[in-house]
Design a protein that fits this description.
Layout lengths: L6 E5 L3 H13 L3 E5 L2 H10 L4 E7 L7 H11 L4 E6 L4 H9 L4 E4 L4 H31 L10 H13 L6 E4 L6 H10 L8 E5 L5 H9 E2 L11 E2 L1 H4 L4 E5 L6 H13 L1 E2 L8 E2 L3 E6 L3 H6 L5 H7 L2 E4 L10 H16 L5 E2 L1 H9 L5 H15 L4 E2 L24 H15 L4 H8 L3 H11 L6
Parallel strand pairs: 1-2, 1-3, 3-4, 4-5, 6-13, 6-14, 7-10, 10-13, 15-16
Antiparallel strand pairs: 8-9, 11-12
Helix pairs in contact: 13-15, 16-17, 17-18
């Protein structure tokens, strides 16, 4: 059985040596191709470029020099590693070969053990590089816009806006309730940009107290404060050349907002405990479940930072606004959890789907995912039925086809807000004044009742 899926191309004009060396390599588990000239070797490499991982070439060939072979291979097939062999090696030739990208430079006559160690290391390096590339491809597919499931008008509008802004370097503010998948959109923006393959650094601003959040963002020097035993890179530095994603940016403390605004304006920052500024280049994507315009107007968030963040806004719809996507999402989660927890499960009953579509989903996709995982754990047989849904799905308000009562207090309030919004042509400041409530309260009510499209 081959030691690696990749092959080794051996180029040497000394036929006896080539065959002996080829045999030694084959006995070690390598698949070896052989060529007597540079021209024949390069032609063979062109025909089997995907298969050949390592080129082992003599320096002195009848039709070319090994350094030229090295240069041609690295220019056209940069993934392949090249090992040069020579009977007349010099230190200067070895240095030149390494500078040109050779994996190693060996002298003929050295032990076979040394050669085998070098070949093993070269093969391992190519194997690792190919695994990394495959993982990067998988990440690209996993976090592409196509991976965001659903075809509802609300979702398609958000995806269309995202597709347009992603290739640019513009700052993006993703707005939407908790659990709607804002980080998936942020990842999709990164993967569709010229910065894909570069770092994607994510930070939830609500997960840290002020001091820890500052050190996570900016990093610090050893001794900057009690407990700072070593230097620490902050996410601003880690995100250099890539994308920085700040989730729940509305939770950023006021003192930190001013400091972060300066980073956006100057593209420089200073670590805690340091005096030397660091230059950074990153693309910013932020997300929030708050109405940032209202927060800024109410003085809860710096307006100048808000304007910086909201260069391009994308609203990620709630699950309530895209109920036609629920069967697709539920089927996806069924497949994911069944594969891990209950392989017999394959189907969703129509009644189960009907219950899902009647439910209000205040936790959005995250809640749907949790409900499906629970149902898969409890299920018997090959079909999910309503029997495996939590108790809240059986309350009066979530029965399929139930009609919201016109006399319910929430319905009266919703209709009244809609009426005043219509009277003011969507002017929220005037609407809040007429309703005798604060602007922030109005925005919260609009979001709660799904009145965001009222004008």
């Amino acid at each position: 059985m081959a030691k690696y899926p990749g092959e080794l191309l051996l180029i040497d004009d000394e036929e006896r040596l080539r065959h002996v060396l080829g045999r030694v390599l084959e006995l070690e588990g390598y698949h070896v191709r052989q060529a007597a000239t540079a021209h024949a070797g390069l032609e063979m490499l062109q025909q089997h470029a995907q298969d050949v991982w390592v080129v082992l070439s003599d320096v002195k060939l009848p039709d070319d020099h090994g350094l030229n072979v090295l240069q041609k291979v690295k220019q056209k097939y940069p993934q392949a590693e090249v090992i040069l062999m020579t009977a007349y090696g010099t230190i200067q030739d070895g240095v030149t070969a390494m500078k040109m990208g050779a994996f190693d430079y060996l002298t003929k006559g050295d032990s076979d053990d040394q050669l085998l160690v070098v070949v093993e290391r070269a093969m391992e390096k190519v194997s690792l590089q190919r695994r990394i590339q495959e993982l990067e491809k998988q990440v690209g597919v996993k976090y592409s816009l196509d991976s965001i499931l659903g075809n509802s008008p609300a979702l398609l509008q958000a995806k269309d806006l995202t597709a347009k802004v992603a290739p640019t370097d513009s700052t993006v503010l993703l707005e939407g309730e908790t659990g709607t998948g804002k980080e998936l959109f942020a990842q999709a923006i990164h993967q569709a940009s010229s910065r894909r393959g570069k770092p994607f650094m994510a930070l939830n601003c609500s997960a840290f107290p002020k001091d820890l959040l500052e050190s996570e963002l900016f990093g610090y020097r050893k001794g900057a404060f009690t407990g700072a035993m070593t230097d620490k890179k902050g996410l601003l530095e880690e995100a250099h050349t890539g994308t920085l994603f700040l989730d729940e940016v509305g939770e950023m403390p006021a003192e930190l907002q001013a400091k972060f605004l300066r980073v956006l304006e100057t593209q420089t920052f200073t670590k805690l405990g340091d005096t030397k500024p660091i230059q950074v280049n990153f693309r910013l994507v932020a997300a929030t479940n708050r109405d940032m315009a209202a927060e800024a107007e109410a003085g809860h968030f710096r307006p100048d930072l808000y304007y910086r963040l909201s260069v391009f806004k994308v609203r990620v719809p709630t699950l309530r606004e895209r109920k036609e996507d629920i069967p697709t999402l539920a089927k996806h989660f069924l497949q994911v959890f069944a594969a891990k927890l209950n392989p017999r499960l394959q189907h969703l009953s129509p009644e189960f789907v009907q219950k899902l579509q009647a439910y209000p989903w205040k936790g959005n996709i995250r809640e749907l995912k949790n409900v499906l995982e629970r149902a898969v754990i409890l299920a018997e047989g090959d079909t999910l039925t309503p029997d495996f849904l939590p108790a809240e799905f059986w309350s009066l308000n979530t029965v399929a086809g139930a009609v919201e009562s016109d006399t319910a207090l929430s319905t009266v309030e919703k209709n009244h807000i809609r009426k005043i919004l219509a009277q003011t042509s969507g002017n929220k400041t005037e609407t809040a004044r007429l309703l005798h409530i604060g602007l922030t309260t109005l925005y919260r009510k609009i979001q709660e009742y799904g009145l965001g499209e009222v004008h």
